[in-house]
Design brief:
The chain starts with a strand and ends with a strand. Helix content is 0%, strand content 52%. It is mainly beta and 123 residues long. The strands form 2 sheets. The chain has a 6-stranded mixed sheet with strand order 2-10-9-4-5-6, with no helix packed on it. It has a 4-stranded antiparallel sheet with strand order 1-3-8-7, with no helix packed on it. It contains no helices and 10 strands.
Length: 123
């Protein structure tokens, strides 16, 4: 499976941005748990949010709860991260990741990684 993330850019604090990630490969996209992680300069990569393939359950980091929302469209092999009320501390490279398991690895090991897309929030 290959993942490609896109949709990053420069946005003012308080604004919104939607990231997208498309997957392609032999494993049905609907059987992949999908996640978004981010890495800010000088910081460790951290889990942002994810959605399980088994039941559609979503999970978020405390820092983005209520502001970010993850969704998926299996028919289009797409997963989205809607980011609202963006803050300067949300500035990071955002990565799309996938896992074959029914549960989200969160800050553990994900099976597949896409390339990152830069999100810069200007205050």
């Amino acid at each position: 499976v290959q993942l490609q993330a896109f949709g990053g850019g420069l946005v003012l604090a308080g604004g919104s941005l939607r990231l997208s990630c498309t997957g392609s490969g032999r494993t049905p996209f609907s059987r992949l748990s999908m996640g978004w992680l981010r890495q800010a300069p000088g910081k460790a990569r951290e889990f942002v949010g994810g959605i399980r393939w088994s039941d559609g359950h979503t999970s978020y980091a405390n820092s983005v709860k209520g502001r970010f929302s993850i969704s998926r469209d299996n028919a289009k092999n797409m997963v989205y991260l809607q980011m609202n009320s963006l803050k300067s501390e949300d500035t990071a490279v955002y990565f799309c990741a996938a896992d074959y398991g029914a549960y989200l690895p969160r800050n553990g090991r994900w099976d597949i990684w896409g390339q990152g897309t830069q999100v810069t929030v200007s205050s």
